[in-house]
């Protein structure tokens, strides 16, 4: 069974997109997703994105991290599939409904409303998520925000001075976070500017994380460090994040189609049922 794919990225956070709205796909499970995502033996990506028909929206977007885990939200992939769709789209995700709109600056996405309760992050036990009384080495007193998926944010003087490859996985897998966590280290450079690096749950250090930019901007706004519209600059480039008066988060930035191709599903261990 041959499967068409589109390779896309948002600021270098890269995706394999499979469009199940137009082609039959084999069942996508963790093993198939991680085999495709492998950069040595697969096609390679940070996230596998699967589009399916939806009863409640224009289509459904499923998101698999490179380790195969299926998750609730992906900001950069939402812009990428928004570009692919070519017109405004209401997109169903495990994290809720998101709305993408093509704009002059790329694609704008209404990402939903942030959540701050400890059990909505989720954390393992009750805690003030605005200034968490926890530390991992020099990373102290983070804020936790759920923007469809879970994030913890540390404000530091220089995000590039943090050894994320070492400390990121320690925090990601700490028992405080029963569903693991995306780890953000951010520096405030002006009332409207943040520098950010993200260790992504299930994918590691990526060039950009859209939900990380949203969660970090909201965390900084909640602490009064920045205004309600801010540019978040990641290693792959900038995103503009706005926290509207109606509590909706809006992310705007570019998306890119890199190339199209096809592969044989059996090469990646897809379990294809043959009807007889
Ligand atoms: N790269 C994404 C986030 C992908 C999911 C994340 N790793 C998670 O496990 O929640 C983005 O652009 O938001």
Bin the helical content.
10-25%
- Strand content range: 35-45%
The CATH class of the largest domain turns out to be: Alpha Beta
CATH topology assignment of the largest domain: Diaminopimelate Epimerase, Chain A, domain 1
Radius of gyration: 18 Å
The molecules bound to the chains, other than polymers, are: the ligand N[C@@H](CCC[C@H](N)C(=O)O)C(=O)O
Number of domains: 2
Active site: 74, 209
Subcellular location: Cytoplasm
GO molecular function: diaminopimelate epimerase activity
Binding site for substrate: 13, 47, 65, 75-76, 149, 182, 200-201, 210-211
Description:
Keywords: Amino-acid biosynthesis, Cytoplasm, Isomerase, Lysine biosynthesis. Catalyzes the stereoinversion of LL-2,6-diaminopimelate (L,L-DAP) to meso-diaminopimelate (meso-DAP), a precursor of L-lysine and an essential component of the bacterial peptidoglycan. Its EC number is 5.1.1.7. With 276 residues, the protein is mostly beta strands. It has two domains: 2-104 and 256-268, Diaminopimelate Epimerase, Chain A, domain 1 (Roll); 114-247, Diaminopimelate Epimerase, Chain A, domain 1 (Roll), CATH 3.10.310. Helices cover 15% and strands 40% of the residues. It has four helices and 19 strands. It has helices at 30-37, 75-85, 164-172, 210-222, and strands spanning 2-10, 13-19, 47-52, 59-65, 70-71, 89-93, 96-103, 106-112, 135-136, 139-140, 143-146, 150-155, 182-190, 193-200, 204-205, 229-234, 237-243, 249-253, 256-264. The strands form two sheets. The chain has a 17-stranded mixed sheet that branches. Strands 9-10 form a two-stranded antiparallel ribbon. Strand 3 and strand 4 form a beta hairpin. The chain starts with a strand and ends in a 12-residue tail after the last strand. It binds the ligand N[C@@H](CCC[C@H](N)C(=O)O)C(=O)O. The site of ligand LBFN2T5F has 19 residues, from strand 4, helix 2 and helix 4. Residues 13, 46-47, 63, 65, 71, 74-76, 149, 182, 200-203, 206, 209-211 line the site of ligand LBFN2T5F.
């Amino acid at each position: 069974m041959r499967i068409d794919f589109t390779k896309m990225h948002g600021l270098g956070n890269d995706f394999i997109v499979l469009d199940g709205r137009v082609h039959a796909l084999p069942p996508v499970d963790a093993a198939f997703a991680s085999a495709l995502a492998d950069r040595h033996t697969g096609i390679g990506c940070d996230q596998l994105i699967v589009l399916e028909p939806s009863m409640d929206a224009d289509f459904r977007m499923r998101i698999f991290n490179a380790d195969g885990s299926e998750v609730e939200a992906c900001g950069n992939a939402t812009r990428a599939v928004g570009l692919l769709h070519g017109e405004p789209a209401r997109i169903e995700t495990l994290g809720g409904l998101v709305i993408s709109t093509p704009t002059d600056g790329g694609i704008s996405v209404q990402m939903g409303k942030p959540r701050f309760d400890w059990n909505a992050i989720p954390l393992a036990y009750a805690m003030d998520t605005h200034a968490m009384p926890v530390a991992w080495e020099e990373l102290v007193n983070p804020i936790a925000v759920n923007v469809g998926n879970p994030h913890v944010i540390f404000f530091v003087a220089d995000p590039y001075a943090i050894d994320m490859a070492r400390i990121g996985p320690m925090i990601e897998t700490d028992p405080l976070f029963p569903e693991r966590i995306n780890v953000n280290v951010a520096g405030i450079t002006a009332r409207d500017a943040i520098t950010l690096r993200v260790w992504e749950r299930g994918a590691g250090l990526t060039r950009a994380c859209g939900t990380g930019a949203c969660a970090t901007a909201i965390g900084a706004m909640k602490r009064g460090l920045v205004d309600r519209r801010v540019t978040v600059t990641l290693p792959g480039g900038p995103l503009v994040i706005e926290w509207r008066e109606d509590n909706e988060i809006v992310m705007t930035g570019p998306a890119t189609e890199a190339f199209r191709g096809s592969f044989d599903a059996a090469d990646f261990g897809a379990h294809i049922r043959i009807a007889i």
